[in-house]
Write a structure and sequence with these properties.
The chain is an all-alpha fold and about 190 residues long. It is about 80% helix and about 0% strand.
């Protein structure tokens, strides 16, 4: 470690220390050493490789999903166009009940995916998180509007729209939304006249 404190890029010393830390299963120290290397990394590819290894250690060896989540966000910051990272963030955010992180990842996914079905799936999940976990009714109504632009017949979203308008004390809009919903329901689900 002394050699690395003098010359943090000393490859032989770094590799030897990494092997020793792995052998001793000093995962926290190994992560710390790798974090130093991230700070010194000269290109994004090297940062990405190191951060990926750090996330793997945090998840598998340290069993720390919150730290893993933070590291995967950093990975996403280096490689923003990769939906795979957002999917991992979603899994970790749900596991750790970090609903703001989940909403942020779903919002980013909506912007990245091209398939209407994938956009709908991400928006539906975002809507549930906004409404049920974050109580962010204004944002949830914005998500409803986005879904209904592309899928005006989407009954589940129309139902949520009515609930949200009632919850936000907008009775006139709720009544209008209810009329639209009833018009879209299959006959067997329509209320009796």
């Amino acid at each position: 470690q002394r050699v690395l404190s003098i010359d943090p890029n000393h490859g032989d010393a770094r590799r030897s220390l990494e092997r020793l830390l792995r052998k001793l299963e000093k995962w926290g120290d190994l992560v710390e050493l790798m974090e130093q290397r991230v700070q010194l990394a000269e290109d994004d590819q090297e940062k990405l490789q190191l951060l990926t290894r750090i996330a793997g250690l945090q998840e598998q060896s340290l069993k720390d999903p919150a730290a893993t989540l933070d590291t995967v966000w950093r990975i996403h910051g280096v490689e923003e166009g990769n939906v795979k990272h957002l999917k991992k963030i979603q899994i970790l955010a749900e596991h750790t009940e970090r609903w703001d992180d989940l909403a942020r990842a779903l919002t980013a996914e909506v912007e990245l995916v091209e398939s209407p079905a994938e956009k709908l799936r991400a928006r539906e999940k975002l809507l549930v998180i906004q409404q049920e976990k974050l109580n962010a009714f204004t944002e949830a109504l914005e998500t409803v509007d986005a879904i209904l632009v592309d899928h005006p017949e989407h009954v589940a979203t129309l139902r949520r729209q009515v609930d949200l308008l009632v919850a936000t004390a907008q009775p006139e809009r709720a009544a209008d939304a209810m009329d639209v919903l009833v018009g879209r329901l299959p006959d067997k689900e329509k209320p009796a006249a």
